[in-house]
Amino acid sequence: MTQEQNFSNVNFLTVQEVAELMRVSKMTVYRMVHAGEMPAVRFGRSYRVPQNAVEAFLKSAVVDQSETSKGSGSAQTG
Q: What's the pTM value of the predicted model, to 2 decimals?
């Protein structure tokens, strides 16, 4: 049995809109969709990404603090 979902309250974004929001290229968004990192629905030849999926992705994005804390002064001259 298939699971039915109600999409009436979902806002969908185009790949271009997602790219602008995330400040990446459209190709990066397409790669994320094809890799399964970003859920999307295909309408004809174009993809639409649920806005809440983009928000969840951005909230879960982790910045490696250990790399940024090393920052200046860690380079050795010789």
A: 0.69
